Amino acid sequence: EWLMPPSIFNVFQTRLLDNEQGAQLEPDFRPALLVVDMQEDFCPPNGTLAVTGGRSITPLINTLLSSPLFVLRVATKDWHPPNHISFASNHNHTSSSSPCCPEFAGEAIPFLSTTTVHNPHNPSESYTTRLWPAHCIAGTPGACLIPELDVSKIDKILEKGTNPLVEMYSAFYDPLKNPRVSDSGLAQMLREARVTHVYVVGLAADYCVWSTAMDAHNEGFETVVVEEATKPVDEEGWRRCKEALVAEGKGVKVVRWE
Ligand code: VGL
Ligand code: ZN
Q1: Domain Isochorismatase-like spans what residues (predicted)?
Q2: ipTM of the prediction greater than 0.90, yes or no
Q3: How many alpha carbons lie under 13 Å from residue 73 in its C-beta half-sphere?
């Protein structure tokens, strides 16, 4: 008898049955786990962009990682060059001395200021994005996965945000489409593994987790975010993200582990 996807409850009920009775999994249920940006710079006490409670979700993520159900476990690392466009410090020029940022009269403020990102191949395509403190600079201690995370269970680690010219919250690609600027290859990797369902956890709920979940859904995967296995930069922003998912009928499920 086939077991039904895709609630997290069923996942673990299935695991128990699988272990105890050698039951077969439904062939149309091939879930992957995406662990987003569990890095020092997103965690207290020393992260430059620390998310409140960021470290506290690790035990649950490790529990999920140890489930034998997932056919693929992928972690991402935000991995920026020092001159990345999302760092407020890279926009601090006096407007008279630099043509770069006339919108900032000398100072861009992390969390508050925004900038416009243009498609390097098509200047007419652009979007506005938020500026941050410098974080996750490739190869620095702040960019390391936190040591509590059980990396031995992870099949593949993807680096994202490596192009200095664009913001890339999603584990899949950056927001520019005409043409695409960065693609991590994740969609192809999931398809090659014949993944049907994508479970998204990690940091931060209202940015990279949300963006990854939206793209997973748009790529045709049944998509689930585990509420207790993520934490937002801004609680109010995360509430709005969740409302938008429901209101727009996006079909991404936000489930509680509890
Ligand atoms: C993230 C802000 C900037 C994230 C990454 O991982 O959610 N947020 N870069
Ligand atoms: Zn970043």
Answers
A1: 32-246
A2: yes
A3: 18
